[in-house]
Design goal:
With about 375 residues, the chain is of the alpha/beta class. The radius of gyration is 22 Å and the shape is globular. Helices cover about 40% and strands about 25% of the residues. The strands form 4 sheets. Strands 6-5-4-7-8-10-9 form a 7-stranded mixed beta sheet, sandwiched between helices. It has a 3-stranded antiparallel beta sheet with strand order 1-2-3. The chain contains 13 helices and 16 strands.
């Protein structure tokens, strides 16, 4: 007898039965919501949607891609054989018999078998634990050009700059600690995918990137390479004055802080281009509105669209307060004031109490002080 039924979106599923319990994180629903929207748009625009859910667990993603995104076929793969009965029962109750297949094999073996049979998919969802690096290269063998690759990283300690050797091993990049490490995690993940795609002669374009407080997820579109990669680089942070700057590899030997002259800590290489496809994210927001999805999710998508092309870092308000030795101003008032002085500034989904702006940190502190004192 199956028990512990859960509802998410239009899916109803169990996370446990008498013999096994599947891992399910309700706090990660926002990442699944965004994927469902992106996949539904793809289905509307392309007329087809075939999905590999490479690490399906209890099957919630497979169910939602079918029920909400309109997937024609879902390959639900789960390496843990003990979940076989639970997964079969969940999909049997929510999906047509000819709309899915279930396997229990290593994800890399699955991707290679698809390549050998020239069986290419529109969307590959890799909800892995730790870094997705072991699966990115092989997933590229199984995806269509124009298809969507959805990656996960749960290793915030490494991407946050607390295990530099491991970041080099996993991402081919040096991750250092600074106030914008949540964004750094997304950019390292995109950069890793871009590097693996480049090795195959492909190109990737971010669709959206999301950090939910503990998990980094990025969806990228895989395309034929038409030009050399030009959106990778390094992010430098000065612990002396708090200023960020970007750099390319030619500047690394003589990279100093442009404000105070101290030597900054340098992270990278990583993706420095847009975090999201602003147009696609806006279309996702429109679809969420049409589906009468929660206003909170629609607001999230609006924030993501506005932050898409901002500089590759953000300033927490607490950092402004600490460096300016002042109380923290209201976020929206500071954004408005920076705009009045002809700087770009916006909220960020990465931190509710932070701003993204092209204004120097010193200007942000000056403006913040004027607001606190007024």
């Amino acid at each position: 007898m199956t028990e512990d039924w859960v509802e998410e979106g239009r899916a109803r599923f169990a996370i446990a039965n008498p013999t096994a319990t599947a891992f399910y994180r309700s706090s990660s629903q926002v990442g699944r919501d965004l994927a469902v929207l992106a996949a539904a748009l793809y289905r509307q625009q392309q007329g087809h949607l075939r999905v590999i859910d490479a690490m399906t667990g209890c099957g919630v993603r497979s169910l939602r891609y079918y029920l909400e995104s309109g997937a024609d076929w879902v390959w639900a793969n789960e390496g843990n054989h003990e979940l076989q009965a639970l997964l079969r029962e969940n999909l049997r109750q929510g999906m047509a018999p000819d709309s899915y297949g279930i396997t229990h094999q290593d994800a890399n073996q699955l991707f290679f078998s698809c390549a050998q049979q020239q069986d290419y998919y529109d969307l590959i969802d890799i909800d892995s634990f730790g870094s997705p690096n072991p699966f990115v290269s092989t997933a590229l063998w199984a995806i269509k050009f124009g298809g969507l690759l959805y990656l996960t990283s749960t290793d915030g300690r490494t991407t946050g700059g607390h295990a530099v050797d491991k970041s080099v091993q996993l991402y081919g990049a040096c991750a250092r600690s600074h106030p914008a490490v949540h964004e750094q995690g997304l950019r390292l993940l995109i950069g890793c995918a871009a590097q693996k795609a480049d090795e195959r002669g492909f190109h990737i374009q971010p669709v959206f990137s999301i950090f939910n407080g503990s998990v980094h997820r990025v969806m990228v579109r895989v395309l034929p390479r038409s030009a050399p990669r030009d959106q990778d680089g390094f992010l430098a942070y000065c612990h002396g004055c708090g200023q960020f700057r970007t750099a390319d590899w030619r500047q690394l030997g003589h990279l100093g802080c442009e404000v105070c002259g101290q030597a900054p800590v340098v992270s990278g290489p990583m993706w420095l281009g847009p975090l999201h496809d602003a147009e696609y994210v806006t279309q996702m927001a429109t679809l969420a509105h049409q589906w009468h999805w929660p206003q909170q999710l629609q607001q999230l998508l609006t924030i993501m669209a506005t932050e898409a092309t901002m500089p590759p870092y953000y300033y927490p308000l607490a950092e402004l307060g600490r460096r300016g030795q002042m109380d923290i101003p209201a976020r929206d008032r500071l954004i408005e004031t920076l705009g009045q002085h002809h700087y770009r500034a916006t909220r960020t989904h990465l931190d509710a109490q932070a701003i993204k702006t092209d204004a120097p940190l010193a200007v942000c502190i000056e403006m913040a002080k004027s607001l606190v004192c007024s």
